[in-house]
Write a structure and sequence with these properties.
The complex is a heterodimer of chains A (496) and B (332). With 496 residues, chain A is an alpha/beta fold. Helices cover 34% and strands 25% of the residues of chain A. The interface between A and B is medium-sized, with 34 and 26 residues.
Chain lengths: 496, 332
């Protein structure tokens, strides 16, 4: 029996406690879910386990033996591996699959001089075969798909006889089919006696694959129990610290005139999309990862080049060639990649919020900072950004609050159509419900909303009408009442 | 414990540059009686003024997240053309000043075209431009510096001369303040206000902070990047003209050392008073540091070629501090 036990782990960051005496254990051969809202302390705890951070206090033991993990190397030597959410940070794109899988061995190798390529490829192949992964070992990682990259990381962990593997939001970039494959692999690792720590925001999959659940909140462990004997409501209420009866509240809003009409939109992955949005209407666009949702949003926003199609707003023809022209036409987008596209991490919350409306606060070219600050405070209050003041850098906020900033910057514009691309990705439940509330309010004001997401239950909860995308086309339109998860899934995966 | 250590670094980060300048001045003053004299101080300020002009140009390219390696060549080009306007072609103030300015703007526009439109990485595009512009100014001047009474190709003497009004820009004084120093103060104040208090300045910082987010926020990103490269070249050109006015010749290749000085000044400026980003005032302080060091080294009779070691080291330290701070902030 080899268990990994963390006891009394404490960690502070410049005086602010992130972990207040946390106990956590994983048995070998179990899948243990680690849950918690953003900022609950999950990642800090895992970073201590992988040697990225040092705990201020507390002990870690493996197989009853106390261990010291002072660097990522220590963790690897003890057989603790992590499959990171952002796979690209852990891979070298212009090397082959085999080199990436066996990277640690290559680095640690005592052999100086030449690499034995034949053996390298054979070894890599053997590891991939063990899991029935089909990736050519000589392929460049750059050319691999996201799910293949993840498999490479898993294979790398396996190549080092990992005893404990952390999966950090592994399904976030995967389609449903790819997720199912991942679960099979996790099951295989589990059978081989590997202890697995599974971090995810998606509760259904937690209940599908995990044996036990540990829930953290505010830097403490608040719950550990068997998955089988724990109802989902209880998990949600532990995460929130209060009961969450209505997960997706939906405001009743009268639907108004035709706002957006798009016909035959084509460009890149998008092979033809017709859609309409009315005032006060929330239209959900669902599809699996890779169906072309993000691409469609970017085409409508002028961020990518439209090859064909017509677009009209309130009956007026528009053809945005840049986001700037789209904004002028009243179309705005809250993009998927929050930190890369949605906010300016180094700039203050205030500057982030005023970036779209600064012209209003400009006289003779000069920014009137007082007015700008007033507007920022007003927006912070309206969208409920949790920040000490508007001068803090936006990057210092939690994911959910960053998203609120990314949304808030559009609220004072003249926009009439709001597009949201996966707005709740990596956002905790508390912030999620506030984002839903904001979107509901926009509809109430008569704005049109296009909500792009691969989270089917979310879209079902919030949308008046659902458009299903598959392989670059809108393949089905479903009313709020007739939509079921199964039906959506059927069309999204290519059913006719 | 941890917190106290960080605050010490922050203190050094914020005030380190200013402290180093003061220490260097103190050291040179104690070791050399001529260092802290009126003549020498004004001399330092004059040389700083040119580095400041070019450095502020570099700062603009850094603000929008770019980089401009061609400023040194642009300095040389402006120096040589402004001299030739007077010495070779005996032009009046209008064309003398206008031609180098227009040429600099063209260099800036070409840089912008290569980087913004063609999307060549900034370092590489401006590296190419650096050679092209350098070659142009050498070809134009046939490799000779341009000075009053210089011999021409046909054996005669050049008819024109460095006009007094022009020399006044680099050597004159107003109320015993050197003119270039006054110009520098004006430049620093105006550009400081521009980048910090106007909408255009703010937008440039936003573009540099996250180009994609800026584009998706509806900012005309390419317009601001173009503007930054044009301003970069413009200030380099102005710096080159000032240089000609100060030394009274159109020295070939005079700008090549200024590239390093200006870049070092701009990066030293990152940390001044904890700004953590390219900023005009910091660049000015950085230019002071470079100017004082160079002058001091001259006084100490260090071999000329050793200057590059010192300047390179200053840049390395400035970069080390800047990137260390960036990493710390990201991790926090």
């Amino acid at each position: 029996m080899s268990d990994l036990i963390m006891t009394g782990i404490r960690k502070q960051f410049s005086g602010v406690p992130a972990l207040r005496s946390v106990d956590f254990e994983v048995k070998s051969g179990e899948v243990h879910a680690l849950l918690g809202a953003n900022g609950a302390g999950k990642s800090t705890l895992m970073k201590i386990l992988t040697g990225a951070y040092q705990a201020d206090e507390g002990t870690i033991s493996i197989e009853g033996r106390k261990v010291k993990i002072e660097s990522p190397q220590d963790a690897k030597q003890l057989g603790v591996q992590c499959v990171y959410q952002e796979v690209d940070t852990a891979l070298i794109p212009y090397l082959s699959v085999a080199e990436n899988i066996l990277m640690d061995q290559l680095v640690a190798s005592r052999r100086k001089g030449l690499i034995r390529w034949k053996r390298l490829y054979e070894q890599a192949e053997a590891i991939l075969k063990k899991f029935d992964f089909v990736i050519p070992v000589k392929k460049q990682v750059e050319a691999c798909t996201l799910s293949e990259k993840q498999l490479i990381l898993i294979a790398r962990a396996a190549a080092q006889q990992a005893r404990f593997v952390i999966f950090d939001e592994p399904t976030a970039p995967l389609s449903n089919r790819e997720s199912e494959r991942l679960f099979a692999i996790i099951e295989q690792l589990k059978q081989a006696g590997v202890g697995i720590i599974y971090i995810s925001h998606r509760l259904p999959e937690i209940f599908q694959i995990c044996d036990r659940i540990t829930i953290m909140r505010d830097g403490r462990r608040v719950f550990t129990g068997e998955t089988q004997s724990t109802p989902m409501d209880e998990v949600i209420s532990h995460m929130l610290g209060k009961s969450f009866s209505e997960e997706f509240p939906k405001l009743k809003v009268p639907i108004g005139n035709l706002l957006l009409e798009a016909k035959g939109i084509q460009g890149g992955k998008v092979r033809g999309a017709d859609l309409t949005v009315r005032e006060g209407e929330i239209v959900g666009i669902v599809g699996l990862v890779g169906a072309g949702k993000t691409e469609l949003a970017r085409l409508l926003f002028g961020a990518d080049r439209m090859e064909a199609g017509t677009l009209s707003i309130k009956g007026k023809q528009v053809r945005p060639r840049t986001p700037r022209e789209a904004v002028e036409a009243g179309i705005v987008l809250v993009p998927e990649e929050r930190r890369k596209e949605g906010i300016f991490v180094e700039e203050s919350v205030k500057h982030n919020l005023s970036v779209t409306t600064l012209a209003k606060w400009t006289t003779l070219g000069f920014v009137r900072r007082g007015l700008e600050a007033l507007q920022a405070d007003e927006l912070i209050r309206r969208v409920g950004v949790k920040t000490a003041n508007s001068n803090l850098p936006a990057g210092s906020l939690s994911g959910g609050n960053q998203q609120k900033v990314a949304i808030g910057k559009w609220l004072d514009t003249e926009a009439s159509l709001f597009m949201f691309d996966e707005p709740t990705k990596g956002v905790d439940i508390g912030a999620k419900s506030e984002i839903y509330r904001l979107i509901g309010q926009l509809a109430e004001q008569g704005k049109g909303v296009l909500y792009f997401s691969c989270e089917i239950p979310e879209v079902m909860g919030i949308a008046d009408r659902i458009l299903v995308m598959c392989e670059g086309r809108i393949v089905k339109e479903l009313g709020r009442e007739e939509a079921t998860q199964e039906l959506i899934m059927y069309y999204a995966s290519g059913g006719k | 414990m941890e917190t106290r250590k960080t605050s010490l670094f922050d203190l050094v980060y914020k005030y380190g540059t200013v402290a180093v300048i003061l220490l260097v001045i103190l050291y040179f003053s104690l070791t050399n009686p001529y260092f802290f004299t009126y003549n020498n101080i004004t001399d330092i300020l004059r040389s700083i003024s040119i580095v400041t002009f070019v450095g502020i140009g570099v700062t603009f390219s850094l603000i929008v997240g770019g980089f401009d390696l061609s400023v040194g060549s642009t300095v040389s080009l402006a120096t040589v053309t402004v001299a030739s306007m007077m010495v070779w072609y005996q032009q009046g103030p209008l064309l003398t000043l206008l031609v180098p300015v227009v040429l600099s703007l063209i260099v800036g526009l070409i840089n912008a075209f290569l980087v913004v439109k063609i999307r060549i990485p900034d370092l590489l595009a401006t590296l190419a431009m650096m050679y092209i512009v350098n070659g142009i100014h050498m070809t134009y001047s046939k490799g000779y510096s341009i000075y009053t009474n210089m011999p021409m190709q046909d054996g005669s003497m050049a008819q024109g001369k460095f006009e007094d009004w022009f020399l006044w820009l680099g050597q004159g004084e107003v109320f015993s303040l050197p003119v270039p120093v006054i110009l520098t103060f004006l430049l620093v104040i105006i550009t400081h206000i521009y980048v910090n208090y106007t909408r255009q300045g703010r937008m440039m910082y936003m573009v540099g902070g996250n180009m994609e987010a800026a584009r998706l926020s509806g900012i005309p990103v390419n317009r601001y990047r173009t503007l930054a490269y044009v301003l970069s070249a413009l200030f380099a050109g102005l710096g080159g003209m000032l240089l000609a006015a100060r030394i009274g010749t159109g020295q070939v290749s005079s700008g090549s050392t200024l590239l390093m000085d200006a870049v070092a000044a701009a990066f030293v400026g990152f940390s001044v008073f904890g700004a953590g980003k390219p900023n005009v005032f910091g660049t000015f302080v950085g230019a002071i540091l470079i100017g004082v060091l160079l002058n001091g080294m001259t006084m100490l009779n260090l071999p000329y070629y050793a200057y590059d070691i010192v300047k390179g080291s200053v840049l390395a330290v400035a970069l080390a501090v800047t990137y260390y701070q960036l990493r710390r902030r990201r991790n926090a």
